[in-house]
Amino acid sequence: MAATTTATTATSPIFFNSHRKISSQSKPISLISFSSSNFLQKRIKNLNFQRMSLLPTRLEFRKHSKVGAKKESLSSDEELQSLVPDGGASVVHQEEVFSWTSVILPFLYPALGGLLFGYDIGATSGATISLQSPELSGTTWFNLSSIQLGLVVSGSLYGALIGSVLVYPIADFLGRRRELIIAAMLYALGGLTTGFAPDLNVLILGRLLYGLGIGLAMHGAPLYIAETCPSQIRGTLISMKELMIVLGILLGYLAGSIEIDAIGGWRYMFGFSAPVALLMGLGMWSLPASPRWLLLRAVQGKASLQEYKEKAIAGLSRLRGRPAGDKVSEKQVEETLVSLKEAYADEASEGSFWEVFQGPSLKAFTIGGGLVLFQQITGQPSVLYYAGSILQTAGFAAASDAARVSVVIGLFKFLMTGVAVLKVDDLGRRPLLIGGVTGITASLLFLSAYYKILQGYPLVAVAALLLYVGCYQISFGPISWLMVSEIFPIRTRGRGISLAVLTNFGANALVTFAFSPLKEALGADNLFLLFAGIALVSLLFVIFIVPETKGLSLEEIESKILK
């Protein structure tokens, strides 16, 4: 029997002054005897305590609630309604029941898109060494110019940028599931084309195809996970997608370390991605479409409401490991449908291109786009660029081997991302962001001081490097993508995330291409000082702009934070 997890969340104190409110309502008093009124007062206290400790309350209500001499059982909704002030909406959520075995695959298959993105980052570092070696490349065109090498290294980045632009207008038409299936096909095609490339032009084409897959996967994966997972573990699962990216980087480094001495080893490094992409595609084919996306299309008038509502109920039942068409899934779909109809009540059936830059969507883009922008322009690629030389100056023997050094850093990144995954739904988003970005700022100041005045103390540089990597992986690394996946209103979620992904890859390209001229113009010490100043600005941005979304459903984020 599959293990099940239950959780009840409450986001506002509905029991505040509830005794006075009940006494002012004539209808409940006329139905409840003196003894049952005392009983309800005790129940209120117990419920308030249970709410604080996140214990289930609804089922226990059903066991004890009786009304008057008739002894008729009250449903939990009826009793709760009697405790809520007039005109107030129900703010206690029905407990979410799900099977862990049913949650794993709807997370794993989309997250493979992140793993393949990370794998490309790791494998490329070793593949470029193998590709340029006269003895190991296995080609006659190994003598690449700096521009040609740049196209090989950055080809997937260009592809990701193009993919982000292409998916912007068609994201809601494709849907999250089909988008990820197409991403898997592009991953596989790009990996095979690169692995079997007969010349440089085909190699660059393969890198572009692979990058298109990255652009689609980094848009569709957080959307699918956020829309299909239970809200109480949404932060953990989306952060685990970042963990999968780091795991992919580590696997890419390991593949490079293993194949670095093989003739034509770069072909294996790139080609190993194809089987994983095939697994991702087959896995996504086996999963249902996002229930929220189905309802969105129906409300937009793009499909039959009844047909897509039935598909949404069936899909949600599968995603939670419940019997087909169960009443709990049906109720949750009805509630989501009501929220969507309210969002579309007096507006056009589909968000326009410019709606992302208006009202609540603009606020969401400021938060999500700002985070992924600062994620890149605080210098993450530049700090890792210096990792090998910093470890070498500290006298670490492994630093003489670039591949092994990369594995060590990858392991540390993986470990620290695991810390964020375990704590994001416990501590919340803001504490991890504030603490992590504070550490990033301090580490960049230390690195600047090392290159300026502390070159005789290499351990300072090593400590600063590890502090930077660790703090990045508990803050900007996972939390930025988590916030992007959950902050946008349902009307503009697809386009908003497309724009955030485009911002991320655009900033990545900017930092990558600006690094060399900035390094020559400013020197390493002043470059890190500049990054420290940007990191300080990003810290202020987090403190004053970024909200806390822990424990809130996607609909609650829209109604309570963005309005």
Automatic annotation (TrEMBL):
**Residue ranges of the TM segments:** 107-127, 147-168, 180-198, 204-226, 238-256, 268-287, 405-424, 431-451, 457-484, 496-515, 527-546
- Where does it reside? Membrane
Give the domain of life.
Eukaryota
The way it spans or sits in the membrane comes to: Multi-pass membrane protein
Q: Which GO terms describe its cellular component?
A: cytoplasm; membrane
Output the Pfam families linked to this UniProt entry. Answer: Sugar_tr
Alphabetical keyword list: Membrane, Transmembrane, Transmembrane helix, Transport
Q: Which InterPro entries match?
A: MFS_dom, MFS_sugar_transport-like, MFS_Sugar_Transporter, MFS_trans_sf, Sugar/inositol_transpt, Sugar_transporter_CS
The segment(s) forming the Major facilitator superfamily (MFS) profile domain are: 106-550
**What's one GO BP annotation on this UniProt entry?**
D-glucose transmembrane transport
Any single GO molecular-function term of the entry would be: transmembrane transporter activity
Family under the similarity heading: Belongs to the major facilitator superfamily. Sugar transporter (TC 2.A.1.1) family.
Name of the protein described by the UniProt record: Major facilitator superfamily (MFS) profile domain-containing protein
